[in-house]
Amino acid sequence: MSPRQIPILALATQCLLAALAWGASRLIDLTPRWGEPRRDVAIGLACAALLAAMNYVLLVRAPANWLVDGVRSVYEEVLVPLFARQSVVGIVLLGAAAGIGEEWLFRGVLQPTVGLVLASLIFGLAHVGGARMLAFGLWATAMGFLMGGLAIATGGLTAPMIAHGVYDMLALAFIRRGQTL
């Protein structure tokens, strides 16, 4: 897959998730809550920076174990080959789309419907592409809990959307920079 095709596929996927979230919201009469956008943008940015630092420690500094090795393996074998040649525009589009599509569906629709725990588990499972990605799925589940807690703490989707989107942008920029483990 070419570097130009990846953002197109990702944008299409995230638009599908946003459409699913919109349709489900309408079907069950669930109006998205946004919180206090001015405050929540700052909170989301701070959380994204904290999550990016945690990601760096996990990928570069943490001692080897099953979880760390599993996440590092997905990084090297899946994420770097897919995203290393992304343009800055591609990185921004991918991050923004993931923040909006995934958070609206998982925190805006699923979490109010099935609760924090189940929504976070489903989020983690959505990031597993096979048995070799189980550790990555656990990492995504933990991120789901963090984003869900952020939605609860702020009373809306703005903070988790910003945190998720900017975190993904920072992670993709880390990959693009050519960081080797």
Polypeptide structure, described:
The chain has helices at 5-27, 37-61, 66-83, 88-114, 116-126, 134-154, 158-176. It is globular, with a radius of gyration of 16 Å. The two termini are 24 Å apart. The protein has 7 helices and no strands. It is mostly helical. Helices cover 80% and strands 0% of the residues. Helix 1 (5-27) runs parallel beside helix 4, helix 3 packs across helix 6 (134-154) and helix 4 runs antiparallel to helix 7 (158-176).
Short summary:
Helices cover 80% and strands 0% of the residues. By secondary structure, it is an all-alpha fold.
Topology overview:
Blueprint: H1 5-27, H2 37-61, H3 66-83, H4 88-114, H5 116-126, H6 134-154, H7 158-176
User: Low-confidence parts lasting 5 or more residues at pLDDT below 50?
Assistant: none
The count of helical stretches stands at: 7
Distance between the termini: 24 Å
Order of helices and strands: HHHHHHH
- Total beta strand runs: 0
Question: Helices and strands: which structural class?
Answer: mainly alpha
Classify the helix fraction into a percent range: over 70%
Mean pLDDT, as a whole number? 92
Q: Strand portion, in percent? A: under 5%
Radius of gyration: 16 Å
Global outline: globular
Short key terms for the protein model shown above:
181 residues, 7 helices, 80% helix, 0% strand
